[in-house]
Specification:
about 130 residues; alpha+beta; Trna Endonuclease, Chain: A, domain 1; 5-stranded mixed sheet; 5 strands; globular
Length: about 130
């Protein structure tokens, strides 16, 4: 018997990506990141998703709090969403989004770029949750 395994939270990430596509379809590229954040907050709310925008999370080093970072969106308390408005995603953007997953101990994240002509998105998985 062949099973069709879905990615963890695939329904939720599908809704999120659909929301970003709607925003990109309406606004296109060329705006600052904050404009896309505001529009996406409206769209996520319309989709009935629970989220926190510019969610502040503590950063620890050897069990000592050393600062905080803000992820653009924390959705349903399980998905981090980092958005960009750049011509092309670079490795540094990917590294930042992966670092957020690790620092926040989240399994799944999305990196979305509104700055290119076609919406770019990457689904990220925290390596400590991958099966060996």
């Amino acid at each position: 018997m062949i099973t069709n395994e879905k990615y963890k939270y695939s329904d939720l990430t599908g809704k999120i990506i659909g929301s970003t596509m709607e925003v990109h379809k309406i606004l296109g590229n060329g705006f600052q990141e904050v404009i896309y954040q505001r529009a996406l907050a409206k769209e996520l709310a319309l989709q009935g998703l629970n989220f926190s925008r510019e969610h502040v999370m503590p950063i620890f080093y050897k069990n000592e709090r050393i600062g905080t970072r803000r992820v653009d969106f924390l959705i349903e308390a399980v998905i981090s969403l980092e958005i960009k408005a750049v011509i092309k995603l670079e490795d540094v953007h990917l590294a930042q989004a992966i670092n957020y997953l690790e620092a926040y101990n989240l399994e799944i994240g999305l990196l979305i770029n509104f700055g290119s002509k076609s919406l770019e998105f990457k689904r990220l998985i925290n390596s400590k949750y991958k099966m060996s």
